[in-house]
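Teaching assistant's notes for section 4

Start the section by putting this record on the projector. Ask students to predict, before seeing the second block, whether 33 kDa chaperonin will look compact or extended. Collect guesses on the board.
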Amino acid sequence: MTTNNNNDTLQKFIFDNAAVRGEFVEISATWSEILQRHSYPPAVKTVLGEMVAAAALLSANLKFNGAIIMQIHGDGPVRLLVVECDSDLRMRATAKVTEGATVADDASLTELLNPGGKARFVITLDPVDKMPGQQPYQGIVPLDGDDMATVIENYMLRSEQLDTRLWLAADDTVSRGLLLQKLPRHSGKEDQIKQSSEADELETWNRAVMLASTLKQEELLSTDIQTLMNRLFWEETIRVFDPAHPQFHCGCTREKVGNMLKMLGREEVDGALEELGQLAIDCDFCGKHYSFDKVDCTQLFVGDTPVEVLIPASDVKH
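Reveal the predicted structure now:
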């Protein structure tokens, strides 16, 4: 299921004479697609929306045909946040809030996900065309930071050794973000930028971060990309690339849902069938409904069909 939203825009740019790149992203129609199927508390919308913007910004630099999956497994009222974005900027996202939990409108990231200090942040890089035996790359770290931008900055510095700064904001109607990244001097950017000294590049990086740090959340939410770029970097020489367009896409299929049931095991599936008569499963991302009766479930366990993980597992309901 894919929805085309050409108003949703990701704009890449690079600073001339320095190995510093940037991206702005504005996601409204895709964000609306994500929200219309769920009724999240305001604080959950904010954190999930910031995560959506961050996933688009990071996915725009994927060097393979595949997807980045960002997950936070929490120990607070929010048990799970998931955002998936592929190299074509097709996105989906969902959140799991503990039933009956009270969530304050101004709840912080720590209050939502990490009050006990046990939350984990997971990034999975999943190529489409895997080599034989190749597994997705997965990095799992403690939830290190008081807001989504800091969590991802710390992850990038620790795992990728890249200086990365993020400014993120989201509300009921839009998810927006700005990324700046200081690239290593051997990154192959020599064909895009003129040679400059390390000191000059550091000065450009520090100046860009200082300028971006003047950006307020209200300004990020209410101002279009072109205006923000002119307002922040009007004295800089930057090169702007053709924009890309994020869009909502859910890749759920009956086969994938069946594989999820196979992962549960025949004994558990048979027990659920005995109790419920048939299994009704709704995709957490797009809401699509799948039904499996006894005949369907029996066929699942015939043969050696490969099992493919569905993230996250959907709810099984009568």
